[in-house]
Amino acid sequence: MKLQYKMVILFSAILLFTVGITGYNTQNQLQKTIETQMGNNAMDLAVTIASLENIQKNLMKKDAEAIQSQIETFREKTRFQYIIVMDMDGIKYSYPYEVSIGKKYLSGGEEDVLKHGKAYTSADRNRFISAIRAFAPIDYQGEQIGAVLVGLLNDTVNREIEPYTRNFQIALVIALVLGIIFTFLMTTNIKKTIFGQEPKEISLLLGEKELILESIDTGIVAINSKQEITLMNDLAKKIFQVDQEVEQDIRMFDDRYAELLVSSMEEDETILHVDIQTRFNINLLCSFKPLKNHNDEIIGAVSTFQNKTEVKRMVEELGGMKHLTDNLRAQNHEFLNKLHIISGLIQLDEKEQAVKYIAELSEQRQEILGILTHNIKNVYVAGLLLAKYSKATENKIDFVVDKWSNMDKLPPHMSPDKFCSIVGNLIENAIEELLGKKQSKIYVKLTQDIEHVHLIVEDNGSGIAEDKREKVFERGISSKKGQRGYGLWIIHNYIEEAKGSIHLTSSEDGTSWEVWLPMKQI
């Protein structure tokens, strides 16, 4: 059931219950108030009649005719249905129907007035009538000689209060209807406010939003018009080292960052790609944009940022891709040269030489393809090794993949990009070391068992200088001219994240890298 219908039903039920209880209690209270007032009026009349000297004397004389005549005169001028004068034995001397005069009063309730001389009101509810009664003693010369009873039927009371009751009931019904209409209008407005979404849909959207915010590699901070933080994802919390973001003042951050974020909101200006260094010495590449509601009113601002070191790494990786593309173009050129050689041999009718030349090329290619196809099941790694083989061959470097290499899958906690970055950087360093050298060779062995992935990359270059071996994993350290020294630093971080290890062995005869990566997360 939709939220709007649930709210209408719930509020209508609450209104119905409240109005019903209120109406019931009010009507009962009104009934009791009217009955009490009527009882008081009946008592006033009963006391008045009991104090009349003529009634007292006629009752002493037991003159029923005189009493009946006088009492009926009184009764016809009032709203009361019956007035009964009785002696101490309960014998009636007046009654609306003369046939009952002289008979004993049998309806009950007169005991206290006759035996104890009390004046009181009571309700007479039997199967024939329902009435309000007032009893008062009749005294003569200091002695009780009887009692008077004044009665008013409840039907008369009900007729008198019926107009008030009807009006009250109509008012209750109108209040109930207006309440239901107001509830419907209110729920409709709420529905519009939440853009017609149901609670489950809102919950799903919020969940998706949280997942998206926490899965992206970009820090996000948002503020409201009071310059209070309303949103900060986990990456932003980590960079600014805060535990809870809600309602914190933006001024808690670095002045430059806070100034630009507030300026974007106040000036309604989008600010892109600004370099900011935090007080924790982290370089950020930031962008700022004002936030607006559906009425185009500025309600805050949002900032997105990335660690500039990561941005540089991505730029370098893109540069590596460009380098790979250039290598592929060069390889394509080399293949064209080989095709030209084959074409020339055929045109010179040197068919045997052409076949021999093709066989040599095919044998070299098939050997590496066989190892990669049958032993290396991960297509990313196989593709990388094939590309490095092509590049090494293009540069006259003997590239050997151990025939006992085998790999079925990557460690589950390491992405293909990171693993390929480790393998690719080590091989690329070896290729660059061997460029222009004769009889150069690169040896690669990649094995996997239940517990580890084991990688060996060796070259027969001139090695790494001893004074640089201990610092080789530091950022910016490189033995190559024109390089910035980020490759080994990056892969060292990847290996440490995976709880693995990397070992370097280097001498004048070459360099050997050995990497161990656990198959299970430690």
From TrEMBL:
What is the protein's name according to its record?
Answer: histidine kinase
Q: Which InterPro entries match?
A: HATPase_C_sf, HATPase_dom, His_kinase_dom, sCache_3, Sensor-like_sf, Sig_transdc_His_kin-like_C, Sig_transdc_His_kin_SpoOB, SPOB_a
What EC number(s) would the UniProt record show? 2.7.13.3
Show the stretches that span the lipid bilayer. Answer: 168-187
> Mind listing the UniProt keywords for this protein, alphabetically?
ATP-binding, Cell membrane, Kinase, Membrane, Nucleotide-binding, Phosphoprotein, Transferase, Transmembrane, Transmembrane helix, Two-component regulatory system
Q: Does the keyword NAD apply?
A: no
Question: What lineage is this protein's organism placed in?
Answer: Bacteria, Bacillati, Bacillota, Clostridia, Lachnospirales
How does the UniProt record describe the way this protein sits in the membrane? Multi-pass membrane protein
Q: Under the GO molecular function aspect, what terms does this record hold? A: ATP binding; phosphorelay sensor kinase activity
UniProt key word Transferase: yes
**What residue stretches are annotated with the Histidine kinase domain?**
330-521
Give the main location: membrane
Q: Which organism is it from?
A: Vallitalea pronyensis
Q: Which reaction does it catalyse?
A: ATP + protein L-histidine = ADP + protein N-phospho-L-histidine
A cellular component annotation (GO) from this entry: plasma membrane
Q: SUPFAM superfamilies, per this entry? A: ATPase domain of HSP90 chaperone/DNA topoisomerase II/histidine kinase, Sensory domain-like, Sporulation response regulatory protein Spo0B
Q: Which domain of life is it from?
A: Bacteria
Q: Where in the cell is it found?
A: Cell membrane
Q: Cross-referenced PROSITE patterns, in alphabetical order? A: HIS_KIN
